[in-house]
Structures are given as C-alpha cells and as structure tokens.
From TrEMBL, chain A:
Entry keyword Glycoprotein: no
Matching Pfam families: AAA (PF00004), ORC4_C (PF14629)
Superkingdom of the source species: Eukaryota
Cell compartments where the protein resides: Nucleus
Lineage: Eukaryota, Viridiplantae, Streptophyta, Embryophyta, Tracheophyta
Domain ATPase AAA-type core: 55-201
Family, per entry: Belongs to the ORC4 family.
Stated name of the protein: Origin of replication complex subunit 4
Organism: Actinidia chinensis var. chinensis (Chinese soft-hair kiwi)
GO molecular function (one): ATP binding
Ranges for domain Origin recognition complex subunit 4 C-terminal: 216-399
UniProtKB/TrEMBL annotation, chain B:
Organism: Actinidia chinensis var. chinensis
Keyword Nucleus recorded: yes
Residue stretches making up the Origin recognition complex subunit 5 C-terminal domain: 380-538
Domain Orc1-like AAA ATPase: 60-216
ORC5 lid domain span: 274-326
Protein name: Origin of replication complex subunit like
UniProtKB/TrEMBL annotation, chain C:
Protein name as it appears in the record: Origin of replication complex subunit like
GO terms of biological process kind: DNA replication initiation; lateral root development; response to sucrose
UniProt-annotated location(s): Nucleus
Composition-biased stretches (Basic residues): 671-682
Origin recognition complex subunit 3 N-terminal domain: residues covered: 48-357
Any one GO MF annotation of this record: DNA replication origin binding
Keywords: DNA replication, DNA-binding, Nucleus
Stated family: Belongs to the ORC3 family.
Protein source organism: Actinidia chinensis var. chinensis (Chinese soft-hair kiwi)
Domain spans labelled Origin recognition complex subunit 3 winged helix C-terminal: 604-731
Higher taxonomy: Eukaryota, Viridiplantae, Streptophyta, Embryophyta, Tracheophyta
Biased composition (Basic and acidic residues): 34-43, 683-695
Length: 419, 541, 733
C-alpha cells in the first residue's frame, strides 16, 4: 500500500514543520519592515560597531518572539562567526539572581572551554562575569544576553539586571541584552537605577493579520516539490489543499478560530490536530479534518464537566444556584442541604439521598471545579461549614441542563422559573 | 485512574506462570547475592508483551474515540509532536489508556505521578533516575542518580539525560534493524508523561513551576521529546497571570451507563447472571455517582447478596428466578444507596467477651449516618462527658446567654429566665440559625468552658446522687472538687479525640479559642448517658 | 525552682508512672481561674504530697513517715518490690490474655487479605520498581484497612497494646511499621510521614523520602512472601489532609506493594469520615476489630489483683470506692488506676510499720514471718497487739502464737471472702453487675455488721433458718448488688443454674465447707433432671406428663431456692470484709485522703506554697523567723514570688526589679522604700552601700528568677502590647 506510506511520510514532514518554529516564522524574514529585519539591524549594528545595546521584544504569547530571535541569532552567527557568544536565560528558571549568575558563568565557561565549578559564591560568579565581559570587549566579541520571560527578572531586587547593565556602561565591554516578555509594560517594572541604564528600544510583536494567517497556512501545509515524495502525489496533494483553502467554509473556520485567539501558536495547534486527523488511506487533507480539529481545539470545559455530572450533582448545582439567586451572600454545604431538602419537600422528587451521599456529590463537584470554596483559609473547619460558590454562570448551567440527556424535568422547571 | 484492562490481568497471569515463577527463584538468589540485574534501555517501554490494536480497543471499553485520537496525535514512528494535555474526571481511565497505548506502540516513555512525587525535587529526581536507568537500592543507599532541586539544574540535567537516551535509541535502532531479535523497543522518540498535574497547583512556589512545566517543550527545543500531561481538571483551571503556551487538549468524558455496563461485565464469571444483576442496580446507582471505583465498591457486596439464594453461580437465570433474586435484593438496595462507605466486620472478629457490643455497633456501620443507638459505644469518664456537653453548649449558645442559663444557683430557677431569653430569641431566630448553618459551632475561650462546666457539675452533682441507686453509698466523697481535679487533662484528651478543636488564638488577648466539633446526636447521647437535661440548657431547642 | 521541681518530678526510678507529672503541671498551669477553682483545698495536702513523691526507698520519706525504727527500711523496700512485681506481672498477664484473641483475629485477617492481594497477580521485580501504577481491576486500588476500636477516649492504655500488636505481627513474619499521629502532623506534611515510614521499615534516615525507595526495599526483602503492615495507633489526632494524601499515595502502589493499614479508632467510626474526604475514604476497604473495653479490662484486673489475692496486699472499703469513682469519673484509664494502686502500696508500706510482713504473709509458709527481723521482736509484738483491729475483740493475753494464728486465719478468711465474691460475680455476670461494684460492696464493713447481727440468731435456731434469711433478705433489700445477684439466682433457668454451679465448684475448690455444699447441690441437680427425664420417658399419658412436667418445674424452683439459700449462707458466714478481720492493718490500706491527695493533688498550689513557705522545706535558721518579708538570704525565686503578692495581676517590671534588688541588697531600707514608692534615691544609696554585688549579677539573678516563675506557670511574659509588664496568672491559695 504505497499510498499509505506516502501519506505517512507527508504527515511526518508536516508534523516536523509544525514543531519547528524556525521554519514556521521564516516567511516573515523577507519583508523590510518586519520585526525580523529591525531586530537584525539592531543586533548586527551593535556587533559591527562594537557598542553596548539593549532591546525588549514585547508581545502576547505565541507570536514568535523567540522564533524570530532565534532566526536572527542564527543568521548573525553565520555572518559573524566567532564574534558573538550567546547567553540564554529564562525567567522561569533563573529569576533567582544567584542561580542566574551561576547559569551565566556556566554558559560562559562552555562558550570559552573553561571548566565550571558549582561551588562558587555569588560574588565570585559576578566578578567572573564582569571580567569575562571585559575580556570579550577587548577581544571585540559581543556577548548577547537573551532574557526570556523578562518580567520575571524584574521581580525582586533586580540585582542581576543592574549588574549587567552597569557592566555595559563601561566602554570596554561589548554586550547586548535582549529581553523577551509577554508583558507590554515590562520596562515599567524596572527600578529607576536599572531603567536609567536601559536603552528603551522596544519591538512589538502582534498576532498575524488574516492575510498573514493565510500565507502562514500555505507556507506550512503546501508540500515541497523538491523532496523525497513523488512529484505527482505532491502536486495532487497541493491542488486539493489549495482548493480547500479557497473554500468559504474554510475561511469561516479560520475566522472562528482567530476570533477566539488569533496568535500563531493557536493556529499551529489547530493545524497540527488537523494534520493528525488526516486520513492515511486517502492520503489527502479534507475540510472535515479542519472542522474536527476546530472542535477538538476549542473546548468548553465547564459544559463538559456539567455533562459528566450525575443527577444528584446536578441537584446540588441547582440548589446552589437558587441560593445565589436569592442574593444569599454566602452559603455552605449545610445551607445547600437545607435547600435540597426544601426542594424535595415541595416537589417530592424521586431521588432524595442521605446527607453523606450528598456530601460526596458536593466533593465531586469540588473536584470537577464546577464549584469552589470562597476562601482558602479555614482548613481546620470541616467541609460542610466552609462557604462555597459556583464557578459556572447561569447560562452555562442552563445550557448544561438543556443538553444533559435524561435530565430530570423538575430541574429544568426550577431553572426556568427562577430566571 | 481507570481500572479496566482485562488483557493485563490475563497477560499478567501468564507472565506470572511463565516469568515470575522462575524469576521469583532467580530474584531470591539475586537478593541473596544482592545484585539485581542492571536496567537496560528496554526498561523504558511498558513491561508486558505487545498487544494488537484490537485488544487495545476491546480492553478499554467506552474509550474507542479517545484511543483513536491519542494514537493519531502521537502520530507515526519518529514524528515529533506538540505537547498533549489529557484531562477528565477521576477514574475515567486516563492513565490506563495512555499506558496501554504506549504498550501498544512500544515506545519508550517516562511516567511520573505528581501524587507519588509530592514535591519538585522528588519529581525531578524521579524523571532523571528513570532516564538515566538508575534504580534506588541498597547498593547506592537508596539515593537517586543526581541531586536536583532547582528547575534550572533540572533543565540542564534533563537535556543531557535526554540526549544520551536519544543517542542510545538511535544506536539501538541501527543494530536492531540489522537483527530484529533484541529489544522490541521502537522509535527514537522519548515521551515524558506527567500525571496528576492538578496537584502541582497546591505545591508551594508553583507560581513558577506550572508555567515551567508547560513551557518545558519550548525550553528544551528537542524534537525527539514528546510531552504528555494528565490532569483531573480542565486546562482553564491552570491559567496563571501571564498565561502559558497551551498544549493540545484531549478530553476523557465520564463513562456512560452503557460503558459502565460493559466495564462491569468484563471478566465476570457468569455474564448472564451479572447482567441481570446490573439491570437491577446500575440505573439507580448511576443517579448518585458514575465513578467506576465507587460503583464497584458498592456493587461487590450487593452482588454477594444477590447470589445468596443461588446454589451454583454457573446457571443462567430465568425470568422468574430474576424476579425472585430481585425481590431478595430489593431491601438491600436503598440502604447501600445511602451509604458511601461500608465496614465489613466478620463474626469471627469479635471474641464472645464483647459480642453484645459487636451487634450494638452493627448498626453504626453506616458511616456519617447517625447511629440509631442510645448509648455511646466507647468509654468516657464522667467528667469528660460533662466537659463535652459544656463544650457543646459553649459553642452552640451565644455567650451573652450564659448568665441567664447558668446563674450562680446553677439554673435552678432558669425556667423563667429561659422563657424571656427564648422570647428575645424569637425575632432573630432566622438570622441566628443561618449564622449557625454558616459558621458552624462557635468558638469560646477556655475560661468560659470551665465556667459552664463548673455550673453544670454543681447542678448535677446532687441530682446525680439520687439518680444512681447503687452508688449513693459509693459516691461519698466524689464532690465537686473531685470532678474539678484535672479538668485540663480532660480538655486535652477531648482535643485529641477531636471533640474539641483548638482554633487560632483570639486577636484581642493571646488566649487560644476552642470549638466543639462533636455532632449534635453525639452530644445528645452523652447527655442521655448522664441523664443530663441538655435540651433545657440548649438555646432555642 | 529547686523545691518545686522536687515536688512535681519524682526522683525515684520505681514509680515511673508519676513521670506524667511535669506534663500534668504544665497543663494545669494554663489558665488563671481553673486553679482558682481547684484552690479550695486543705493546706495539709502539700505535705503528704511531698512525701509520696519522694520514693519510699529514700531515707527522707521513711523518716517523715510514722515508722520510727530504722533497720526495717530495707525490709519494706524489698517487701514493696516483691508485692509490686507480683501485681505488675499479674496485670500484664491479664491484659495479654484479653488482647490475645483479637490479635489472632487481626493476624488471620492480615494473612487472608495478603493472600487475596497476591492471588490477583504480583508484578515481577522489573515492573514492581517502575514508576507507573499497575492496575488489575476496578478494586485493585483498595487498601485493606483494619479499624481497631479501642473503646476508650483516652489513648494512654492502648499505646502499649498497639506496640504489642506490632510485635505480634512481626513475630509472624510481617514487616511492621508503627506510625503515630506525630508522623501525620500538618507541619511536617506528607514528607515527614514518609520519612517516618521509611525509618520504621528501612531503619535508615534518608535525605529524600519516596515511595519508590520502599518498593525496591520490599523487593529486596525476597519478593511477595510477607505483607507490609502499617499501624497508625491514634487516628483521631492525625491531620486529615496528610492522612488522605498518604492513603492516595498508597493506593497508587497497592498492587506493587501489598501494604495493609491498621488504624486505631478511639471514639466512633464517624471520626474517620469526619477526618477523611470521600475520595480518600473510597480507597479503604475496612474490617472492624474491637479491643476489650476498659471496663472489661478493669473487671479482669480487679478480679486478678484484688479479689483473688495475687499478692497479700488489699485495700479498704473507702479506698476501693475512691478508686472506683476515680476510674469512672476522673479519667477512665487503666494506667491511672494502676498508678493509684501503686501509690497506695507505696504509702501503705511507708506508713504501716508491720507492712513488711506482706512478703511473708503472701508466701505460702507463714512460719517465719518475723524471723527476718529478730532484732526488734518485742517492738513488733507491741505494735501488732495494739493494732486497733486486734484491740477491738478484747483478748487480754498477747503472745506469739496468737499473732501467728491471727495472721493465718487472716489469710484463710481472705480466701473465703474472695471465693464467695467470685461466686457472687459468677452469678451476676450476665446481668450487668460489674465486678467493681460488687467488690466495693462486699468490702463494706457496716453492711457486713448488719448481716452479722441476724447471723447470730440464724445460728442459734436451726429451724429458724427460713425466717432468718427472710430477715437477711430484708437487709439485702437496701444494699444493692448482692441483693440483685441473689434475685437473679432465684429466677435462673435450669441450664444456666447447673452451669453456674459448675463454675462455683471451680471457684470454691480448696474451701472445704462451701465446696461440699456446692457438690451436694450439683448432685441433687443431676438427680433431679435425670429423674425428670425418666418420668418423661416412662408414663406417656398426657395428664401425668403434664403433672410430671409440673413437678419438674417445682423441683427446679426448689433447686433455685436451695441455691439462693446457699449463696445467702455464703454471704452471711464467709464473706467477711477485710476490715473486720484482726491484724488487717498489716496488709490492708485504708487511708483515702492521702491517696486522693497524692493522686489528684494540685502541684501549682504546692509550688506556690513552697515558694512562700520555703523555710519549711530548707530548714534554715536565718529566714524562718522573718514572717513574710523577704530577706537577702532567701532563694531568689521565692523572694520574687513574695514580692509578687503585693502587685495586681499586672506587674511593672521596673518596680519589681527595684524592690527585688533592694530586698537582696538591703532588706530594712527596702522596707522603708516600700512605704514611699520612689525607686530613685534608693539607687545611689545601695550603690554607695554594697560594692560586693554588681548590678549585672543582680540583673542576672532577677532574670533567672523571672524565667523560673514563668516555667512554673505563675507568670506570663510581657506581650507586644505591654512590653514593660508581666502578667500574674496565679492568684491566692
């Protein structure tokens, strides 16, 4: 079954493309006013002119800040071999100054084939770093500090940032600090002494426009003709793909997708699952795959949770909702139980269970996180006394009850009546 | 979470008959010579032998679509993948499905559960140990391969370990392609499975840890690594302030009634009998809970009951027999519907010395259900009982009423006082009741407890005397002072027995405040055992 | 601190139960008004308390006690050792027998559940140490849990029980870990809990605790031969979240490690559910085991120790009642009862000069009672013969063999008494008549005297038996339990009756007269029922059968009557309370007040009194005369405390310090200063006066004294809000 193997290969190719951000963001490199060119200009100038510099890459998550940066650095490393050494830090890992400096020292050692010892104190590491900066400056070698999750470095004393930027004030050193953050006010987080030393270059990364999205999709999904895959298959594949992309329904799908979240990463996930839905028998992408992908990407957890509930848990939810409608400021399991009893007394429902079973249902709801406790204090108190609250809106509850099969009519009635 | 794979049972049976009979002896002498065989890279795949896709599907009823989706997302051999996020309620078979799929795919994986690995360090070290094929034993003093506490160290170590493993796999691939005999391990991808991710939110410093775990794929930038997160709660419960790169969600819904029926019917000896049993019980129980474990815990004793009239369990029941069995089962369904937890006490487990206690406690077996008996079934000294009662009063009654309820004469004339107090209580009865429902029992300082205790005992002493006929000669010098002797020891032991909980200290004065956690019927029982008129002292009751 | 320390921590190694006492002090030290309540007590108590706290072996106590002549000191000590060792071993045996069958049940259950676990398949070594859970079925995550109900709110008695249980299981090859609630504290969390577990199993301390370690350890132990048992002795005290975490963690490892939980539940089953959330509860499959309730244990102990005399020692009526009330009212722990018993023995031996004969008496051969102490033989006789119990029956001549005879029939009467009590107990067993009550009642002298009064006329007219025991019944109306027992006996069905008689026969073995009667009754019973049987066989005519049945009924009734008479007769003639027997003082302890004060004395008060009237303890000449005004020669702490008396509940540290300093440096001037409250001039004065004491040393003394006062719980240290004030928490005596 050769066709299946072909499809498999194509699938692997597409998947590896989707998992490789450099490839994904390469089309943005050509245009002159793209972030890519700006960033490359900044960096290369500071390399060539041997000056210190600092820049912030800001923008929401999944807009390819890091990818573009990677591309740029790659090119620069190609253009200026052994004139650049890159130090990468991540705020999630190195927000603590001590281990940040240690990490810098480690990477510097790796760069320059020095041996690194863990047991060195913070000050020694700092000294070492500054010394290395000076050395690199004398050797006309630019050190690039890439600080991912830059905002996390700004919390705390910012000693690291201060050291870096202060070291860069001296003429001898030659370094670039590149901060990457998804907080647009990242530079506002800096202390005065740090901010004064920081050159306020900012590059703003925005989610791609519709056209860009289209380009991106094409760029990713269209199979290359110059590959191991046989030519005719590739042609057929691309042809099918293109007329899918041209379809109105596909445009609608993309719109619904980008309405919720128009970032690249979201698109990538969408495309990934679409590709995964590809039927290997036929070996071509179909519009259905995209639809399935959309539904699997865009989920409504609360409604799913509601569907999972048992009847008793639904009763609990409705009771809580009734309590909330009555503007009862805060309530706990006991009051819910009271409400449940009153409902039972007034309507003689068939399923009326003992208190302990209801408590178990209540705890199930807590596990599903359809409800939660008001406060995280009062752990010493037992469950039934801690005030609780609903985590779902009336609309969701209503939807859930409507879509719940074999939902007791009484619950529907209650929820209809109370609105 | 999920607990349903029949083939694993079967296969394990076979493996035990084949491997674990001989390995047992082998392991014995290995333990004697204390050199367990070193782990190979084959230990990274699921232990048992390979299963086909069909018995994968059939072994996990009601999970067909999820299995299909997961297999698709994991993709063909050596294809990189975006991190997956598997979520769904408790006991919906998430863990088992993932494990079985990896068993089917024979791909190397590393599984860690954030429940067993209860803090970052244990989590990191367990991942690193498995990757570096390290096993804790006596030889290395049960220490792990690398000491690793910080995420920063973890990333470096993890990258090294992964690279070595991936290289091993590649080498393995080459020479296994030459001769297929060795190693059923396939592919050069390594998958990290992190289970019970929702627990990480309770860890301290999780503010950075969770985004880190989610971003691990982007940080590593190794295409040969696949990440699978398994969680009880949906992805929207993980949002931190600056968000994170979302993995691809895969949802495991709870089992439907039909799925449950299939699950329960699997590896039953007598399918017909059990299905007829399920027809009776499954629907009512599904209205309260749809969890496999809870249901099966409830069913197993019921099925025993159901089978009681039958002589042989092999028969397939006819209609009228079903009816008979049902009528036999009928009385037991409702009680077991209303209990969450059953204690089986075997008749042999009580010596004849405490037979009557045994069948007295027979009815307290239902947990959280109020036991129907009058006397408390454990020993408390009289003063402890009085303390318990006074603590109960102290946390039920408002402190302002103490003066009217217990005056110096010990409430001898507290009937009229009681009346006007109840009149006063009438208007904000509702509010007070709400408040009681909300806050639960109120707190009180130790002094108040002791004062109430003093009053009660001073009242009850002489009444006690003529109430106990036998002891009027005996209770000679056990006066008030006698009861007061070491009340504080009693308080502490009540605290230990969870009848009084020691709350936080009051902000105004440093004294700690207490709260009575004894349930009302417990207090009533104690009062009854003392012939103490609790209702007389209890505020609006 | 020295005197008070001596007062609340006994130095002697023997009464180790009293080691609870510092704890006791700290507890009572907490609030201010509690001890105010417990303050209305006689001041005499403190002396006695001090005495018993110091052990009898220390010379001080023996000289304080009424025993003057010195040489018998060692006799008493080894008499004490002897008696106590006997009683102690007896108690231990009793408890072991009570627990034995429950332990066996538990062991059986453990092995059973272990087999079921193994039967559903055990993973091999490679799998067992893997990290992913092995699941074999819907219920494979369940943990077998034994709930052991110690039907006592207090835990003290059962700590030992659980240790024994652990040993018992270990001896049968299980791997056992004994965890307590301290391992489940919220502070240490699950980490500490796992550490505890590993420490118990691996006997090693690891830097990071982890279940996988346990798994590999278990595999190394030879795989799947023995179960692992984890015993948690006090569930109520555990922190619920930690416990549930622990359970969930175990449930991930169930198949790989056959761990079986044994949880001690002190109160009720509901406690478990109140602690654990449902998602943790559902992993427990529970079995219930019930330990003997403290009441049962008490019965057994009383029976073994006090009724059937394991050692010669016995207690008087009031003491028995006091013990009973203490058990049922104060705290129902066997431990405290045993402690009380021990204190009683100690006091008895330290007070009663002739008590050293206990050893000889309880030995079988009562010949050489006083041969060990030939030195003060006349002394001994004198003492023996002016014992009140001897002088009561006015015998004029006093010589050796009378004493010997007296002692020997003291023993005999005690045996009679105990067998009679046992018979009563047997009769009343099924009917909620507890040994303790029966015991107390049968010890009551005046009840006995009432019986004895008509006992005489019962003897002088043989025919008047019925009338006399009628009167006796009259008498028995008012006294509770014996009468109830007799009523029970009267309407006892036949089967039970002969069983009862069998038991009686067992109990009265060795006492000829009762035994004979019982035998005779039994034989008559046999005769009766086989006669009835014969009748039933022979004449088949309905009427006769009915009639025969009828007179079988009658015979049975008559038998009951006979038995009743027998027991009444026993009660009347043989159940002689110990306190009515001459020479009983030698072996019987009757002083309730001392015991009470020793047991529930209150140490805070003692501390205060010692601090105020310290010169009674350290009998120094210097400060005994000066009434209540501090002298420099006094102990710092007591000076401080004396100074405290003139403050309110808040003490200004500065004033206090000044007056303290003054009283140390110069009492008289300080008194002048006390009149006009201005510390300023005093300063230069005493600086001018005394070079010898530097300011620093005074401050040092001051601060030390303050800490001691705080430690004894008489002060509360300055708070944030009022840094310059300490708070008095002890007021008035």
């Amino acid at each position: 079954m050769g066709r299946e193997n072909l499809a498999g290969e194509a699938l692997i190719l597409l998947r590896s493309r989707l998992c490789n951000p450099k490839f994904v963001f390469s089309p943005f490199s050509d245009s002159a006013d793209s972030n890519y060119s700006k960033l490359k200009f900044i960096l290369s100038s500071s390399v060539t002119e041997a000056c210190n510099n600092s820049v912030l890459l800001l923008g929401p998550r999944g807009c390819g800040k890091n990818a573009v940066l990677e591309l740029v650095i790659e090119d620069l490393l190609k253009e200026y071999p052994d004139m650049i050494s890159v130090i990468k830090l991540n705020g999630l890992l190195h927000s603590d100054d001590n281990c940040a400096v240690k990490e810098i020292a480690r990477q510097l050692c790796v760069e320059h084939q020095l041996l690194f010892s863990k047991m060195v104190s913070f000050d020694d590491n700092t000294q070492f770093m500054i010394g290395m900066l000076r050395e690199c400056g004398l050797a006309h070698k630019t050190v690039m500090f890439v600080l991912d999750e830059f905002d996390l470095f700004a919390q705390g004393k910012q000693r690291l940032l201060y050291c870096l930027l202060d070291a860069m004030q001296s003429v001898t050193s030659q370094a670039v600090v590149i901060g990457v953050s998804c907080r647009l006010d990242a530079d506002q987080l800096l202390e005065k002494r740090v901010r004064s030393r920081f050159s306020h270059r900012k590059l703003l990364f925005l989610p791609p426009s519709k056209e860009d999205l289209q380009r991106l999709i094409k760029h990713i999904l269209v199979l290359p003709t110059d590959s191991s895959l046989p030519h005719d298959y590739v042609v057929e594949f691309n042809a099918k793909l293109l007329n899918i992309l041209a379809k109105e329904r596909f445009k609608q799908i993309i719109d619904t997708l980008s309405n919720s979240d128009s970032t690249c990463s979201n698109l990538l996930r969408f495309l990934f699952s679409a590709v995964c839905h590809m039927d290997l028998k036929s070996g071509f992408l179909l519009i259905e795959n995209f639809k399935a992908a959309l539904s699997s990407i865009q989920r409504q957890p609360k409604l799913e949770g509601l569907k999972d509930c048992s009847i008793l848990e639904l009763y609990m939810l409705v009771c809580m909702w009734r309590l909330e409608v009555r503007e009862q400021d805060s309530y706990n399991f006991n009051s819910v139980m009271k409400e449940y009893r009153s409902i039972h007394d007034s309507f003689q429902t068939s399923d009326y269970y003992a208190r302990n079973v209801c408590l178990r249902a209540f705890e199930h709801l807590l596990e599903r996180e359809l409800i939660s406790f008001m406060d995280h204090r009062g752990h010493n108190q037992s469950t039934e006394f801690r005030p609780a609250k609903l985590l779902i809106s009336y609309h969701e509850l209503y939807q859930g009850l409507k879509s719940y099969r074999s939902c007791p009519a009484i619950l529907q009635k209650l929820i209809d009546r109370e609105r | 979470m999920g607990k349903e794979e029949s083939p694993q049972v079967v296969t394990r049976r076979t493996t035990r008959s084949s491997s674990s009979s001989t390995p047992n002896s082998k392991n014995l002498e290995t333990t004697k010579s204390c050199n367990p065989q070193p782990m190979t890279i084959n230990d990274l795949v699921f232990g048992d032998e390979h299963i086909s896709f069909d018995d994968l599907i059939s072994s996990l009823p009601g999970r067909r679509s999820q299995i299909h989706e997961l297999v698709r997302l994991l993709g063909p051999l050596n294809s990189p993948t975006i991190p997956l996020f598997i979520y769904g309620g408790t006991s919906t078979g998430k863990t088992s499905v993932v494990l079985q799929i990896f068993r089917y795919l024979n791909r190397p994986f590393v599984y860690t559960s954030c429940r067993t690995c209860y803090n970052p360090r244990v989590l990191f070290e367990s991942i690193l140990n498995q990757l570096s094929l390290h096993r804790k034993d006596v030889g290395n003093g049960y220490s792990s391969a690398k000491r690793c506490e910080r995420p920063s160290d973890f990333v470096n170590l993890l990258r090294e370990a992964l690279l070595t493993v991936v290289n091993n796999l590649k080498g393995h691939l080459e020479n296994s392609s030459s001769k297929k005999s060795i190693g059923r391990i396939s592919g050069k991808m390594v998958y990290l499975i992190i289970d019970n991710l929702e627990l990480v939110r309770e860890w301290d410093k999780s503010a950075n840890l969770l985004p880190f775990l989610f971003k691990l794929y982007a940080i590593l930038m190794l295409p040969e690594v696949g990440l699978v997160y398994i969680s009880n709660t949906s992805p929207d419960t993980y949002y931190s302030d600056t968000g994170y790169i979302e993995p691809i969600p895969v949802y495991f819904p709870d089992y439907t009634e039909e799925d449950l029926r299939q699950i329960f019917l699997r590896n039953q000896a007598n399918q017909k009998l059990y299905s007829s049993f399920l027809e009776v019980v499954l629907r009512p129980f599904c209205r309260t809970t749809r969890r496999v474990d809870e249901l099966s815990a409830a069913f197993s004793p019921l099925f025993k009951k159901y089978c009681e009239p039958l002589s042989d369990l092999g028969i397939s029941p006819s209609e009228e027999m079903k009816r008979r069995l049902f009528s036999h089962l009928q009385p037991h369904i409702m009680p077991s519907l209303n209990e969450v937890f059953k204690i089986s006490s075997r008749p042999s487990s009580e010596g004849e010395s405490n037979k009557e206690k045994a069948n007295r406690q027979g009815c307290t077996q239902r947990l959280r259900g109020c036991p129907a008996i009058d006397e408390i079934d454990f020993h408390m000294s009289t003063s402890a009982k009085y303390l318990l009662i006074s603590a109960f009063l102290a946390s039920r009654n408002p402190a302002t009423l103490d003066a009217s309820l217990f005056d110096s004469t010990g409430g001898s004339d507290n009937r009229k006082r009681k009346r006007n107090s109840s009149v006063k209580s009438m208007e904000h009865k509702e509010a007070a009741e709400q408040e009681l429902l909300m806050k639960g029992p109120g707190t009180f300082p130790l002094e108040r407890l002791l004062a109430i205790f003093q009053c009660i005992t001073s009242v009850e002493e002489y009444t006690l005397e003529e109430e106990e006929p036998g002891t009027n000669s005996l209770g000679v010098e056990s006066g008030d002072s006698g009861l007061m002797s070491d009340v504080l020891l009693q308080v502490s032991s009540l605290c230990n027995a969870n009848f009084i909980s020691k709350g936080g200290s009051c902000p105004l004065d440093g004294s700690t405040r207490y709260r009575s956690t004894a349930s009302e019927d417990m207090a009533l029982k104690v009062a009854r055992s003392l012939k103490f008129p609790l209702s007389k002292y209890l505020y609006r009751r | 601190m020295a005197p008070s320390a001596a007062a609340n921590s006994p130095p002697s190694p023997e009464n180790t139960e009293c080691n609870l006492q510092p704890f006791f002090v700290l507890h009572k030290a907490l609030p201010s008004n509690s001890e105010r309540k417990s303050m209305e007590k006689t001041a005499s108590r403190k002396r006695t308390r001090r005495r018993i706290d110091l052990s009898p072996s220390s010379p001080k106590s023996s000289e304080q006690s009424e025993a003057e002549f010195a040489g018998d000191h060692h006799l008493r000590t080894d008499a004490f050792r002897y008696v106590w060792s006997k009683i102690d071993s007896t108690i231990k045996n009793v408890l072991r027998n009570i627990n034995a069958d429950v332990f066996n049940d538990i062991l059986f259950w453990v092995q059973e559940s272990f087999n079921t676990t193994c039967s559903c398949g055990m993973p091999d070594r490679a799998k067992a140490t893997r990290s992913y859970p092995v699941v074999t079925g819907p219920l494979s995550k369940q943990i077998y849990t034994g709930l052991v109900f110690t039907q006592n709110m207090e835990l003290v008695d059962d700590l030992l029980t659980f240790k024994d249980l652990g040993l018992h299981l270990t001896s049968h090859g299980c791997h056992v870990a004994n965890l307590s609630s301290f391992d489940f504290s919220a502070k240490n969390g699950i980490d500490g809990c796992l550490r505890g577990l590993l420490r118990q199993f691996l006997l090693a301390n690891l830097d990071v605790a982890d279940m996988s370690i346990l798994a590999s350890w278990y595999i190394d132990q030879g795989n799947y031969e023995n179960p692992m048992v984890v015993i948690i002795d006090d569930m109520e005290r555990c922190c619920g979240s930690v416990l549930s975490q622990f359970i969930l963690m175990l449930s991930e490892w169930t198949v790989k490690m056959p761990i079986i939980l044994i949880v001690g539940v002190a109160t009720t089953v509901d406690a478990l559910s109140s602690i654990l959330p449902s998602y943790a509860l559902q992993y427990l499959s529970c079995h219930k085991f019930i330990l003997g309730s403290p009441a049962d244990r008490m019965e057994a102990v009383i029976e073994a120790v006090l009724v059937k005399q394991c050692s010669g020692f016995s207690v008087g009526h009031n003491v028995a009642i006091f013990l009973r009330n203490y058990f049922f009212r104060q705290d129902g722990t066997l431990t405290s009862f045993v402690r009380a018993l021990k204190i009683a023995i100690v006091q008895h031996i330290s007070m009663e000069p002739l008590s050293f004969m206990l050893k000889g008496l309880s030995d079988e051969d009562s010949q050489d009672l006083w041969s060990e102490s030939p030195v003060f033989l006349p002394e001994l006789f004198k003492r023996a013969f002016d014992l009140p119990s001897f002088r009561r029956n006015e015998l004029t001549e006093t010589n050796e063999e009378i004493l010997a005879r007296g002692l020997s029939d003291l023993k005999r009467l005690k045996e009679l008494w105990s067998s009679a009590v046992m018979c009563l107990y047997e009769a009343g067993k099924g009917h909620k008549i507890t040994m303790f009550d029966l015991y107390c009642e049968t010890l009551d002298p005046e009840l006995h005297h009432s019986r004895v009064s008509d006992h005489h006329l019962g003897l002088e007219t043989k025919v008047g038996m019925s009338s006399s025991d009628h009167q006796i019944r009259e008498r028995l109306q008012n006294c509770g339990f014996i009468h109830q027992v007799i009523r029970k006996v009267r309407d006892l069905p036949e089967v039970l009756l002969c069983q009862l008689l069998k038991n009686w026969e067992k109990h009265t073995k060795g006492i000829i007269e009762i035994h004979a009667k019982v035998r005779e009754l039994q034989s008559s019973l046999k005769f009766e029922d086989d006669k009835g049987l014969k009748q039933g066989l022979t004449d088949l005519s309905k009427r006769q059968k009915i009639q025969s049945n009828f007179n079988i009924e009658k015979d049975a009734k008559r038998l009951n009557e006979k038995t009743t008479e027998l027991i009444i007769w026993m009660v009347k003639n043989y159940m002689l309370p110990i306190e009515c027997i001459p020479f009983h003082e030698i072996i019987c302890f009757t002083n309730v007040s001392k015991l009470q004060s020793a047991l529930i004395g209150d140490p805070r008060r003692t501390i205060q009194v010692d601090l105020l009237e310290f010169h009674k303890i350290l009998k120094c000449k210097c400060c005994s005369k000066s009434g209540n005004n501090p002298l420099p020669s006094m102990h710092d702490t007591s000076i401080m405390y004396v100074l405290t008396q003139e403050h309110g509940d808040l003490i200004n540290l500065h004033d206090w310090y000044q007056s303290f300093k003054a009283s140390i440096l110069h009492p008289r001037i300080k008194r002048k200063h006390r009149l006009k409250h201005s510390p300023s001039p005093k300063k230069k004065m005493d600086t001018s006066e005394s070079r010898k004491k530097s300011e620093a040393s005074v401050q040092a003394q001051f601060s030390r004294a303050v800490t001691e006062l705080q430690i004894t719980g008489l002060l509360r240290m300055p708070t944030k809000r009022r840094p310059d004030y300490v708070q008095r928490v002890a007021f008035g005596l």
